[in-house]
Write a structure and sequence with these properties.
disordered C terminus, 16 helices, mainly alpha
Length: 316
């Protein structure tokens, strides 16, 4: 095979002009690594995909090559949703499927939980007339005797797309947990990406407020699950190096006072663990110390605290 047989792109494209390059974005998803799909969806790539899906009203907005690609995708999906490429194929298919024109039967039976939430957020939130839903074209997925119950509380579904005001809701919100992980990883990889930085800064502020509002006695149990990984990913992301807004500066100073014995605070005071968790989101590793950490830092935080904060900041 020579290079003339390879389907190379004819021009460069960016997310800013993705409306004109819908097909390019679909092909990006088709070739995306399976183990990064969840992270990629939590990035600007996923946000742009969502915007393009919501802009699509009918097939008249698609050109001939886009319709041809959709037909190829549907042909591949005709082999069933149990195949490994199903998530990639379906996300690419989203870009050619207006809201109200796509229905996946029993998605919980075949697809990962994070993908099911994405699908329902786009196609099962009442944004289109559900009577107009049609089954996925050419799909021969076998029906099961009884559908898996679908959460139909519209307010709860809408809340999945908003950062919760409390940690109890956050730990069961896969969309926001994945968004935390995705933005933290992307900022760690490219801290100069302003869009990612701004989004992560806003998310950190909401997260800090949720930590602040949480009863201290509940923190350990909440940190026993996925929230623990998401939290430390954000701490390690380097977001602390970014300039602080007046709101973030006020939050940082508030927790410093709560942890400072000279200012009437300290680890013997209520809310000190909340303050410590928030402080680690604002202080760079190596710039914050805790006296007698073995006694003051709870055991469920101590190992990571030692690893990240009980070190000297590398000289530049």
């Amino acid at each position: 095979m020579n290079l003339r047989d390879v389907d190379l792109p004819l021009e460069a494209w960016s997310l800013q002009n993705a409306q004109a390059r819908r097909e390019a974005l679909a092909r990006f998803w088709l070739y995306a690594p399976t183990d990064l799909l969840e992270t990629l969806w939590s990035s600007p790539v996923g946000n742009t995909t969502t915007e393009l899906v919501r802009l699509l009203k009918d097939d008249s907005q698609l050109n001939a090559s886009e319709i041809a690609l959709r037909n190829q995708i549907n042909e591949a999906l005709s082999h069933g949703l149990q195949q490994p490429l199903s998530p990639q194929l379906l996300i690419a298919n989203f870009l050619f499927s207006p809201i109200g024109r796509l229905k996946i039967q029993n998605p919980e039976q075949y697809l990962p939980a994070w993908f099911v939430l994405i699908y329902k957020g786009l196609y099962e939130q009442g944004e289109g007339d559900k009577q107009n839903y049609v089954p996925l074209e050419a799909s021969n997925v076998q029906q099961v005797a009884s559908d898996v119950p679908i959460q139909n509380n519209q307010n709860q579904q809408q809340d999945l797309n908003q950062f919760p005001s409390n940690l109890e809701e956050l730990v069961v919100n896969r969309i926001q947990l994945n968004r935390m992980l995705g933005l933290s990883n992307l900022h760690y990889i490219d801290p100069d990406d302003q869009e990612i930085s701004e989004e992560l800064i806003a998310l950190r502020c909401s997260f800090a407020n949720a930590i602040k509002a949480c009863p201290e006695e509940k923190l350990e149990s909440l940190w026993a699950g996925e929230l623990n990984d998401r939290y430390w990913s954000m701490v390690r992301s380097g977001i602390q190096k970014q300039a602080l807004s007046s709101v973030d500066e006020a939050m940082k100073q508030e927790v410093v006072l709560k942890l400072s014995p000279a200012q009437g605070g300290g680890f013997d005071k209520p809310g000190s663990i909340n303050a410590l968790l928030i402080a680690m989101l604002y202080f760079e590793p190596g710039t914050m110390t805790v006296n007698d950490p073995e006694s003051n830092v709870p055991s469920w935080l101590l190992e990571n605290f030692r690893e990240i904060f009980m070190q000297t900041l590398p000289s530049s």
